[in-house]
Amino acid sequence: MSKSKRRVKSKLLKHHILLSSRRLARHLPAVRRYSQRALLYMLHRYGMVYVKPDNGSMGRGVIRVEAHKGYYTYHQGIRPVKCRSFRTLAARLRTITRHRRYLIQKGIHALRHKGRPYDFRVMIQRRPDRIWEPTGIAARLAHPRKAVTNGSQGGTIYDPLDLLRRPAGKRKAKRLLRRMDRMALLTSAKMAKRYPFMNELGLDIAVDSKLKPWILEVNTRPDPCPFTLLPDQSLIKRIVAYGEAYGRSYPLKCGKARSAR
Ligand SMILES: Nc1ncnc2c1ncn2[C@@H]1O[C@H](COP(=O)(O)OP(=O)(O)O)[C@@H](O)[C@H]1O
Ligand SMILES: [Mg+2]
């Protein structure tokens, strides 16, 4: 594999790279390549899983699947679908997943606001002196009828403290955000060891009801759009300045996400 690579698309590959760090492994939800057997196993083990394309982005093709007493549901887009048996569920998912590689990930019951799940985008970049620095955290609240928080899917962007202080209190919320920064630093170290020319990463981190952070995915070409919608414009300014220093210019055409203000 080329060492000059700056972009890695496979979520499975990135999962395996991070898994070699003991401190990160605790924050990685279990993952399997999609198969009917793996789906049955993971659903019964975790009750809720996410099925997603290995090379996907922007929440496209992401499906939340749940086992209930006597039936199953899968939720893609705005409409949850009920299946009476595992066979029916597996047949439906087969028609969706058979064209490309999919994975199954343990579902995290992310914190909710107004009944809608939210998670965090943690940006980390190389400074002009090449040292990695966490450059911002934005919270993303899912569209009222969707199981994904992506801004491009109609998510709403919040200042992370505004949401996290409700379940955690202000002091604990701040500590949790610093912890996410440290997770991003560990992630950047792991990724940069394998891909020395990598300059930026965007982690998607969900927090469960016990306030444990989980890394849902690591983006190697992160979209800084959420940061344009934060009240504090100093973050996006720094993100753009650091990007320019390593030769990246962001289009910042941020049409779909909403701002909490
Ligand atoms: N394991 C999971 N548990 C809970 N929510 C998840 C999980 N995986 C994905 N999601 C939700 O779906 C969104 C999109 O999934 P993600 O893995 O980030 O793929 P994409 O590359 O399409 O953004 C996440 O931001 C999160 O809201
Ligand atoms: Mg994502």
Task: Report on the architecture of this protein.
- With 261 residues, the protein is an alpha+beta fold.
- It has 2 domains: 11-28 and 110-259, ATP-grasp fold, B domain (D-amino Acid Aminotransferase, Chain A, domain 1, 2-Layer Sandwich); 31-106, Dna Ligase, domain 1, CATH 3.30.1490.
- 33% of the residues lie in helices and 28% in strands.
- The protein contains 8 helices and 13 strands.
- It has helices at residues 11-19, 22-25, 36-46, 86-97, 160-168, 170-194, 225-228, 234-245, and strands at residues 31-33, 48-53, 63-68, 71-76, 79-83, 102-106, 112-113, 116-126, 132-141, 156-158, 200-207, 213-219, 258-259.
- Strands 7, 8, 9, 10, 11, 12 and 13 form a 7-stranded mixed beta sheet that branches. The protein has a 6-stranded antiparallel beta sheet with strand order 1-6-2-3-4-5, sandwiched between helices.
- The protein is globular and about 55 Å long.
- The chain starts with 10 loop residues before the first helix and ends with a strand.
- The mean pLDDT is 96.
- Magnesium ion is lined by residues 204, 217.
The biggest beta sheet reads: 7 strands, mixed
Tell me the helix content: 25-40%
Distance between the termini: 44 Å
Stretches where pLDDT falls below 50 for ≥5 residues?
A: none
The sequence of SSEs as H and E is: HHEHEEEEHEEEEEHHEEHHE
Number of strands: 13
- The Cα radius of gyration reads 18 Å
Q: How many discrete domains?
A: 2
Q: Write down the CATH class of the largest domain.
A: Alpha Beta
The coarse silhouette is globular
In quaternary terms, these chains amount to single chain
